[in-house]
Input
Amino acid sequence: MIPKVMSRDEVRNVDERAIEEFGIPGVVLMENAGRGCVDWLTELGVSGRVVICAGKGNNGGDGFVIARHLENRGHDVKVLVFANPETLRGDAKINYEIVERAGTPIRVLADFRSQDEIESVVDEELASADWIVDALLGTGTRGSLREPFPAIISAINRASARTLAIDLPSGQDCDTGLAVDPENAVVVKADFTATFVARKLGFENPASAAFTGEVRVIDIGVPHSMFKAR
Output
């Protein structure tokens, strides 16, 4: 049986074993994750404009997959990429190039002159959103959050749109459920969190519910035999 709760290290181990021992390409896991999120969004009645806020890691890659499947289902989608596309690597790069070639509306927001500019630009982009997908930061995030992420997270929290966080809300520590950066203490306050394989250890902290909202575990296709005692 798949454990009901996993720590940061356990989640990383699942991905590594799925790829190395079972031969599942990482891009397949990412595809399953993104499609599963869109299935849930459809159940939730997603409508209107969906703005996807994507970072440069695998969390952002999940966001690019979500953008593609939402568009395929007829939704109005815009992707905000908070990284230089040239810095994208691996599966995230593959999925970014797919949405770029598909003509999905994308705005790259990689270079800001000031925090005021970050807030102004992001507030403007999110003002028209009915839904926001938080695909900025994943379970591996630790330590201090560097700008522009605190300002982006604050802008997401100011927006009136409903928010779906991918794997966990950006700025939340996977293992404690609290802010990963106690000094900045900014965490996306999501209405829904689509987490992968199992609930994260930090979700067991009652205080984490203020950030995660409703949580659903999304199956990304790792074999259940992986979890048998070895």
The radius of gyration is 17 Å. Helices lie at 8-20, 26-43, 58-72, 90-101, 115-126, 149-158, 209-212. The chain has a mean pLDDT of 94. The CA atoms of residues 105 and 155 lie 20 Å apart.
